[in-house]
Amino acid sequence: MLTSDGPMRTFHAIIERDLETGLLVGHVSGWPGAHSLADSLQELRANLQEVVSMLLEHGEPQFESEFVAVQIVAVP
């Protein structure tokens, strides 16, 4: 997909719920500083888009790791 600024970039976000506050917590895997909190998935996505856009204004991300997969672990 192209935007007025060039091709659309995608990043993997990990989303969890904070059990104390009930807020959704999202962070872009491997990218320190790319995180946000929100009440809904829609709000969290918008927040993360804003955070990533701001971080990209300062240059390319310096990833500490790479997202690979989510795995379900079953134990007896």
Number of helices: 1
Main sheet characteristics: 3 strands, antiparallel
Share of β-strand residues: 15-25%
**Ends apart, CA distance between termini:** 45 Å
Task: Give a short overview.
By secondary structure, the protein is α+β, with helices and mostly antiparallel strands.
What can you see in these coordinates?
- There is one protein chain.
- This protein has one helix at residues 41-56, and strands at 2-3, 6-7, 13-17, 24-28, 35-38.
- It has one domain (2-56).
- The mean pLDDT is 90.
- The protein is of the alpha+beta class.
- Helix content is 21%, strand content 24%.
- The protein has one helix and five strands; from the N terminus they run βββββα.
- The strands form two sheets. A three-stranded antiparallel beta sheet has the order 3-4-5, with helices on one face. A two-stranded antiparallel ribbon has the order 1-2.
- The chain is globular.
List the helices and strands and how they pair.
Blueprint (H helix, E strand, L loop, with lengths): L1 E2 L2 E2 L5 E5 L6 E5 L6 E4 L2 H16 L20
Antiparallel strand pairs: 1-2, 3-4, 4-5
List keywords for this structure.
single chain; 76 residues; 5 strands; 3-stranded antiparallel beta sheet; 24% strand; two-stranded antiparallel sheet; alpha+beta
